[in-house]
Structures are given as C-alpha cells and as structure tokens.
Amino acid sequence: MKKLARLTALALLAGSAFASEAVLFNVVSLQAEARREVPNDLAQASLYVEFSDANAAQLSDKLNRALSDGLKAAKAYPTVKAANGGNSVYPLYGKNNKAEGWRGRAEVRLESTDFKALAELVGKLQSNMQLGGMSFGVSPATMEKAETELIDEAVRAFRSRAEVVKQSVGGKGYKLVNLSVNTQGGYAPPPIMRAKAGFARAEAMDVAAPPMEAGQSQVTVGVAGSIQVE
To answer: Per-residue pLDDT tens for 85-118?
Structure first.
C-alpha cells in the first residue's frame, strides 16, 4: 500500500509539472517604454579654495577658516543645503624629489531647488572661493511624480503591443504571464559650468550671480513582460 501511495503521489506531481509546462505554450516576451522631458528643478554647486604654505598646520588653519566662513555664509540662505565637501593637504616636491612645502584644498557643496537663492549665495562665496562646478537635475519629488505618471503610459504601451502580437498570430485573446517595471531616472547633460582646477582664489570683490539656465532631463520608464496568446 505504501509503495502504491508513493507511486500515486509521484504520478500526481508529474501531472502537475506537465500542466505547469503546458501553460508556457504560445508565450511571447514584450517590452515598451514611455519618456518625458522634465524641467530640472534641482541645482548643485561646489566651491573651493586652494592654498600653499611652508607649514602644514598653518595651511590647515587657513583651509578650515575658509571652509567655516563659507558654511557660515550659507546659513543666511535656509532654502540652500550646504555641506562640507572635505579638505585635503598634500606635500609639494621640487627637484630631486625634495619637499618644498604643502598645498591644500577645501570644498563647500551646495544644493537647492531655490535657484535664485543658490545663485545669490554662489555669487557671494565667489568673492573668496572658486566655482568648481554647477549642475542641474530633477528633484526626488518631481522625479517620483513623473515616474508614476509614466508607469501608466508605459503599461498602456505594453498592452497596445500585446494586442498587435495577438492579432498578428491570429489569437483570440491573451493572458498576462508576468510584468516588470523599470524606472531609469532622469538623464541630464554633464555640469554646464566648471572652473579649471588649480586657479588661485579670486580677489575679494563683489561677484555677479551665475546664470541659472537649468534645462531639462529625460525621465524614462520601461515595462517588460510576457503574455500567453490564446
């Protein structure tokens, strides 16, 4: 009896596996995507200072003071996020690989959706710092909204292609086997402003705010899946 029950169980499993494989007949893989140009509403900028000194401790003090002054100035702009971009000190070597002093760099990084405030702050900081670079992109909130809307468009595009496939192969209908959604985020051009590294800091003076032409980024949502044509 035990042997018979075991054989019966194996037969049932085999039948179940066969039925599962049968579902895979007439399966077609498809993919579709939806794209949209979204205005960039997030700006990022980096400003830095570079100094040289024969004494490493004095050099570090200069860098720390410049960094502190930059972060302090940023506090007057609550809509701008400011962060320490780090600082570094390294030795300078001359002929015969002989140490001749030290050079260091300190950086402040800024981020904001308030372009006017960011531009004004950058202009003020440029009186004592160099603009390392500025770039624009899509903020997380705007990105999420755009992707949510594009998911619906991408799924509708997928269903439209599924209908074309069904008609092309002479099917009466189709069932969705699986579906995956891929959000690729926004693509924006490289930073549109960049200063050459190694420039000495600007003399203290009033500096005009940089132009804020943010441009657009392309947001893409892809949908891939399989259908079973009936």
So the answer is: 988 999 998 887 888 899 999 999 999 999 999 9
Specify the residue for token string 């705010």: 209
Q: Give CA–CA dist 36/177, Å, rounded.
A: 28
**Nearest CA to 146 among 199, 187, 186, 108?**
186
Host H or E run for residue 116:
helix 115-125
Strands 130-137 and 42-53: antiparallel
Residue 136 CB neighbour total at 10 angstroms: 23
Q: What 3 state SS string does 177-202 have?
A: EEEEEEEEEEECCCCCECCCCCCCCC
Q: Kindly provide the residue ranges of all beta strands, DSSP E only, lying in 64-159, ordered along the sequence.
A: 81-93, 99-112, 130-137
pTM (global) more than 0.85: no
Assigned token pair, 190? 């490289």
